[in-house]
Amino acid sequence: MVFIMKITTECVYCLLNRIIYETELSTKDVELRTEVIKKACGMLSEIYSPDECSASIATRVHKLAYETLGDNDPYKELKDESNNIAKSLVPLVEELVNNSDNPLKMSMICAIIGNMMDFGIAGGSSHPGMLKEVFGKTVKEGLGYDDFSKVEVLLKKASHVVLFTDNCGEIVFDKVLCRELKKAYPNCFLTLVVRGAPIISDATIEDARAFGFDEVVDEILTTNCFAIGVDFNSISDRLRAVLDKVDLIICKGMANYEAFSETDYKPIAYLLRTKCAPIANSMGIPQDINAIKLYE
Amino acid sequence: MVFIMKITTECVYCLLNRIIYETELSTKDVELRTEVIKKACGMLSEIYSPDECSASIATRVHKLAYETLGDNDPYKELKDESNNIAKSLVPLVEELVNNSDNPLKMSMICAIIGNMMDFGIAGGSSHPGMLKEVFGKTVKEGLGYDDFSKVEVLLKKASHVVLFTDNCGEIVFDKVLCRELKKAYPNCFLTLVVRGAPIISDATIEDARAFGFDEVVDEILTTNCFAIGVDFNSISDRLRAVLDKVDLIICKGMANYEAFSETDYKPIAYLLRTKCAPIANSMGIPQDINAIKLYE
Questions:
Q1: CA–CA distances in Å: residue A229 to residues A289, B10, B172, B212
Q2: Which chain A residues have a beta carbon less than 8 Å from that of B49?
Q3: B257 pLDDT exceeds 50?
Q4: Partner-chain contact A10 B33, CB within 8 Å
Q5: Mutation target among B22, B23, B37, B61 for the A interface, most CBs of A within 10 A
């Protein structure tokens, strides 16, 4: 069964909200801000269609905004700050993971909580420090949807797993997750995929290098282009080959869900915080929960 | 000193949010919904300008939405429900007013709390019943900005006062306010102004008639057209004459603030709940408070 994440009416003003957010991060020039807003509205009036995938519409509007701003990374400072906040929480994450009966599952929970850090959307954080404020409380919440045991069954037989990262900040916890995956399944080949270009607050190859992912994964690839989630028309032959034969795809975050929902790839385990109603509804799970959901 | 409420970037997606909200109230037809969203985005891409008044841009986009929907009152049911909820709270309002040391001030506070009931915007209520849930708590909050004593000085010398209403629901409490005004200042001529046509959840002449405002005011006028707040190009000669010579203008709600901020009319007492940052910032007072603010 395929659940395609088509754009909803709610996505329209959420996307416009985020475009305005990044415009204000990028420039104080009122004329330039106005130009971006007018162009984004103009493009939405042309390409909005309830039959389109939310991620592909979002990619096109963000691309227009970045080009108009002449800024290839409006979220740069916010991304660095998110990484620093997450780094400061690593000792706490390590303590939780080490003291857990199920370190791998706990590392997934922490990586999902890291996914709360997301900017310019209603269900995300207003500032990077927010993660610090809510981390303990959210660990106690645990998983609102829990397919871990099903995922574990697949991991036990897997010889190759691929993990698609999402935002900066949470990428720091993703490293702990990758380490625990390799600790539990040392013979499983682990591929990491980050975004091919800076887009919103998502992690790129620079983040993967800065955090030494080469120590914990067997291979690092990128999505090969500027896209919300993944543009499957633009991925490398190597990534396409991985996706065709891999035993399990692990996707962090909503954008990867949006993009993969258009494809037949499986099995996919989504590890995310459901930060908006359209995604929660599409996945058939509650909003504002920590979720591991497997599509087999 | 004039504070003109120009449209902000935040107003753009708030307006689009409200357009989508009323579209979904009006129709389940996905094609029609899509047409309204595309047209609204298209108009915003053309007319958005940081030099324009927020109310006049909002009026044009709502007009396009209503025309495209072929619906002259998408909020009809919600307005009726709001009036019914407010009516059920009248005994509580009367008790508060009658037991108060300052019945007129208490009637203003209740009328301001009624202004919380507003739909399709982030700081407003999600459903009419919400007013019932928060009424008691919000009465205890009292006024976060209080120019009542300054307003009282003007009322004592006033021979003519005009009150511009805002939403349905709160209109029921506005009647108590009007009655208290006439009780305290029986020789003062009181003009009521409602919207000239149904627009969002605002009260019209039908509401003023249904609630028997003729019992408590000396004259009932309308803004004479379809407009967020007031379109001063379209008002009647009578209303223009009133505004030119009246001793005090009392305005309920944010839309009247937006519209009057473009004019030189004064003195104006704004009685409102600051439901959004752009209005709160423009007025120089905190967001999410009950406020009486006088511009002399």
A1: 20, 26, 50, 58
A2: 34
A3: yes
A4: no
A5: B37
- Distance, in Å, from the CA atom of A12 to the CA atom of A61, rounded to the nearest integer, reads 11
**Alpha-carbon gap: B31 to the closest alpha carbon of chain A (Å):** 9
What are A16's two structure tokens?
């416009």
| Whole-number pLDDT of residue B117 | 81
For chain A, what is the HEC assignment? Answer: CCCCCECCHHHHHHHHHHHHHHHHHHCCCHHHHHHHHHHHHHHHHHHCCCCCEHHHHHHHHHHHHHHHHCCCCCCHHHHHHHHHHHHHHHHHHHHHHHCCCCHHHHHHHHHHHHCCCCCCCCCCCCCCCHHHHHHHHHHHHCCCEECHHHHHHHHHHCCEEEEECCECCHHHHHHHHHHHHHHHCCCCEEEEEEECCCCCCECEHHHHHHCCHHHCCCEEEECCCCCCCCCCCCCCHHHHHHHHHCCEEEEECHHHHHHHCCCCCCCEEEEEECCCHHHHHHHCCCCCCEEEEEEC
* Strand B248-252 with B268-273, pairing: parallel
B45–A48 CB contact, under 8 Å:
no
* ipTM score assigned to the predicted complex: 0.86
pLDDT tens sequence across A29-88:
999 999 999 999 999 999 999 999 899 999 999 999 999 999 999 999 999 999 999 999
* Backbone phi, psi, residue B95, to 5°: -65, -45
For A278-292, B115-129, B205-219, which range has the lowest pLDDT when averaged over its residues? B115-129
How far is residue A116's CA from residue B137's CA, in Å, rounded to a whole number? Answer: 31
Residues paired with B73 in a beta bridge:
none
The whole-angstrom separation of Cα B30 and Cα A294 is: 31
Indicate the pLDDT class of residue A128, thresholds 50, 70 and 90: confident
CA dist list (Å): A76 to A79, A198, A206, B286:
5, 9, 12, 31
Which residue of chain B has the CA closest to A17? B13
Residue entry with tokens 């996706």: A243
Q: Find the closest chain A residue to B18 by CA distance.
A: A13
